[in-house]
Specification:
The structure is a single chain. The protein is of the alpha+beta class and about 200 residues long. Helices cover about 20% and strands about 30% of the residues. It has a single domain, classed as Nucleoside Triphosphate Pyrophosphohydrolase, CATH 3.90.79. A hairpin with a 5-residue loop joins strand 6 and strand 7. The protein starts with a helix and ends in an 18-residue tail after the last helix.
């Protein structure tokens, strides 16, 4: 990214996240963190994204953000950075954390907290083959697709399912909901809530 643009983008995201009043879930449910990591994409703004390994027991081949369960003694921030390093080989300091988005309850019973990270420039992705099938730096501008978000009705699901564009695909919640809130809150300074967005039934597994 051009230096001036990168400075402006980072300042805007930091300000918007600082002003956002997070929706927090206070429960004994297992907790997880996912990393929304801003990085350079051929001189433009991008974020890191992956497809989970096809051999995984749970949700093989799922498009997702790097993330995983919070371990005893770890903070949400620590977890997001650890999972980013383990899954994609991108090791960032604690100063890379710009802020958090809302907690989201999942069908599997886990509470997920998105952590926004700043990689400051280009990154080299080294995906862990046991966990990651493929990984990319995706265009940030694609999140502002004129048709996004799409709302679709799925059989057996109460409420419409929100879908967002990533790499030409239209992905599902909870990842789609996280990216939608990131777009609205972090990029544009608009308050939206996504903790009650419906998810497909297969995300229970």
């Amino acid at each position: 990214m051009r230096y001036e643009y990168a400075v402006s983008l980072r300042r805007r995201i930091l300000k918007n996240l600082e002003q956002h009043e997070r929706y927090e879930i206070d429960s004994d449910a297992p907790r997880a963190a996912v990393a929304i990591t801003l990085a350079d994409l051929d001189g433009r703004a991008g974020y890191l994204f992956l497809r989970r390994a096809l051999t995984l027991r749970r949700n093989p081949g799922q498009f997702a953000l790097p993330g995983g369960r919070v371990e005893a003694g770890d903070s949400i921030d620590d977890t997001a950075r650890r999972e980013l390093a383990e899954e994609l080989g991108v090791d960032l300091p604690d100063t890379a954390v710009l802020g958090l988005l809302d907690d989201i309850p999942t069908r599997s019973g886990t509470t997920v907290t998105p952590v926004v990270l700043w990689a400051a420039g280009a990154v080299t992705l080294e995906p862990d083959a046991e966990e990651v099938h493929a990984a990319w730096v995706m265009s940030l501008s694609e999140l502002d697709h004129p048709l996004a978000p799409k709302w679709e009705t799925l059989e057996g699901v109460e409420g419409d399912v929100l879908r967002m564009p990533v790499g030409g695909e239209w992905i599902n919640p909870p990842t789609a909901a996280i990216l939608y809130q990131f777009r609205e809150v972090a990029l544009h300074g608009r308050t939206v809530r996504v903790h009650d967005v419906a998810s497909p039934l297969w995300t229970e597994h």
